[in-house]
Amino acid sequence: MKRVNQIIQHEVFIRELKKLNRLERDRMYCRHDIEHLLSVARLAYITALEEGLPLKKDVIYGAALLHDIGRASQYETGIPHDQAGALIAETVLMDCGFDETECAEILGAIGRHRSKAAAEEEILAKVLYQADKASRACFACKAQSACDWPAEKKNYSVKR
Which residues lie closer than 8 Å to 47 by C-beta, 6 or more apart? Predict the structure, then answer.
């Protein structure tokens, strides 16, 4: 997990996560903090193991840790976070030793993680999409009644 640890120690990752934490400090809905990112990574990895998928652990963790890295940019500029995140993540991934094929796979998953239909195109994107939704405990959320997430995306049960 050397490359995963390089991601969480990368100055761009740290800067963007701090900025996001500041921007979401008063958010009543689910936050996109390190707990969320790690939950997504762990759920995606469990899925890959249980389903015997040909995905490397550090590629799964890389995609999960970086899938929401563009959220601060979305809040600040309006650019969708999947698009902004792919741009930010590319630099981090290259600096952390991911090769071109791995980068393309991770960036593709980041770019597709918001759409179930788009996520179906690639294994990593599909696993990331599913883990992202499953990571949310909508069944126990204090803001459940005010949440505008579509019902089909809300998680009302424990998965994995």
Answer: 53, 127, 130, 131, 160
CB atoms within 10 A of CB 42: 16
Nearest to 62 by CA among 90, 24, 81, 82: 90
- Structure confidence by residue, pLDDT tens digits, 86-101: 999 999 999 999 999 9
CB-CB contact of 83 with 111 (8 Å) = yes
Non-local CB neighbours of 107 within 8 Å, separated by 6+ positions: 86, 89, 90, 93
- Contact predicate 113/133, CB 8 Å: no
Residue 103's CB: how many other CB atoms inside 10 A? 19
